Amino acid sequence: MKGIIFCGAAAMLSLPAFSETDFQLHSFVDYYGEIEPETEYETLRNRYYIQPELKTDLPQGLDANISANLWYQTANDDQWIEAENILREASISKSFDSFDLSIGQKFVGLGFSDAFGPLNVVNGSDKTILSLDDGYDGKRADFMVKLDFYPTFEDEINLIYIPFPRPDYEPKGVVNLSSDSLDVNLDYNQPAYLTDDAQSIYLNYLHYGMSMDVELLYAYYVDRNPGFDLSELTVSAGTLTGNADVEYGRNHLFGAAVSLPLGPFVLSEDVAFNLTEDFAGEDLGVKNSYLTANTQLSGTFFNSYTQLMSIFRYTFNYDENEQFSSAIDDDLSTEILEYHIQQYEYILFHILHVHRSLLREKLYLSANLGFFYSSRFYVAPRARYSLSDNLSVEIGADIWTANGTSNDLTGSDDADNFYIRAAYSY
Predict the structure, then answer these.
(1) Signal peptide location in the record (predicted)?
(2) In the predicted model, what is the mean pLDDT of residues 25-34?
(3) Any residues with CB less than 8 A from the CB of 193 and at least 6 apart, and which?
(4) What share of the chain has pLDDT > 90, as a percent?
């Protein structure tokens, strides 16, 4: 499958240039350092990154778009980008009288929430990012066929078919879970494209009105966040032992979203119910069914753009698992459920985003603040200064007020860090 996509990308690059061609280049050099107060200073990465993008008109009314990610890191062990992550997007589209058709590797965002959107489940994520708002590595595009129907000026119907979904990007290898009751190896050597757990379908409806926008979504899709096949594990002398492979479950998603003006602000609400393969909650290796709601209020406040998000999640049948023994289940669920971001039966947290431009829009200041009803707070200040139309410098930090998690199953450990970045765009 990957070979087909790369061949298609090469074919698009070999096409002659046409009258309407737009070439863009985004590049940066950055440095990340860990600043955990209880550990020694550590260099996390020093990355050289370029992202070329080409958009052009082809014969027969076709539009083509292709882009790539290319980077090299010198901190710690020298490292190049994984081959599976080089191709960013590569698609061809055509507009007809009442619908649009596009084929290729693309990003698609659903719902009205700008972050933590429960309807935004089309593309997988990169779990190794160091900043939660990383705009370069946060998502991974998928090869898809997308049909957009326009029955009226106010209505839109989207049908998306993904034959071979891409899983969330995790560091490959084997992780050992070791405790008084656990000696389990989890194998993370997952494929670049899922061929066994294949095919995802999304049916989306949008209505744009004068007083309210509405979106409805049904999806039968492969969850990119893996579960674990625990069927080969055995208990010996009170200890759970064996090897477990990652597996990818299939979910039904029923979602709805609304967006409407509220005085000088815009209020949006995204709600989704995910019906997983283990609604009863009896298998520790499978994510439980859950309900998620994201309430978002956006607008200008004291000359600054302000956005407040409240995210609530309820997990069904949270304490129903009785798979091994009580002690084993407790230890294993601590690892599995924390990895699945299902640490609690109820989760409620708030994110505040504020940004403002100064000095004739040369200076851009922003901050993200997270409140989790616990000892942990998240603070992420950002500052970017434009030296010219193409060149800018940026500094920022991601700070948690409690220690980062020690869970080996997370791709990024939430360690406090800062970064410096010089970026050039053409």
Answers:
(1) 1-19
(2) 96
(3) 1, 2, 143, 164, 165, 166
(4) 55
- The hierarchical CATH code for the domain 2-425 is 2.40.160.10
**Backbone torsions φ then ψ of 68, nearest 5 degrees:** -140, 155
**Who contacts 178 (Cβ-Cβ below 8 Å, separation ≥6)?**
none
**In sequence order, what E strands does 179-332 have?**
182-187, 200-208, 213-222, 227-229, 234-236, 239-247, 250-262, 265-275, 290-301, 304-315
Under DSSP, the state recorded for 408 is T
Structure tokens at 152: 């009226």
Enclosing H/E stretch for 73: strand 70-73
Q: Identify the DSSP state of 84.
A: G
Give, rounded to a whole angstrom, the gap between the first and last alpha carbons of the chain. 32
Residue 47's closest CA among 69, 23, 25?
Answer: 69
Each residue's pLDDT tens digit, 275-319 = 998 888 777 788 889 999 999 999 998 889 999 999 999 989 877
| Three-state secondary structure call for residue 95 | strand
Pairwise CA distance, residues 132 & 141, whole Å: 18
List the domain boundaries for the chain. 2-425
Tokens of 37: 């107060």
Cα–Cα separations (whole angstroms), residue 250 to 165, 187, 221, 332: 11, 20, 6, 22
Question: How many Å is the Cα radius of gyration of the chain?
Answer: 23
Structure-token pair, residue 27? 């590049």
DSSP string spanning 352-375?
A: EEEEEEETTTTEEEEEEEEE-SSS
Looking at the DSSP assignment, which residues form a beta bridge with residue 63?
A: 57, 93
Are the C-beta atoms of 369 and 352 separated by less than 8 Å?
yes
Residue 341 DSSP label:
T
CA dihedral sign, ordered 413, 414, 419, 424: positive
**What pTM was computed for the model?**
0.88
Distance, C-alpha 334 to centroid of its chain: 23
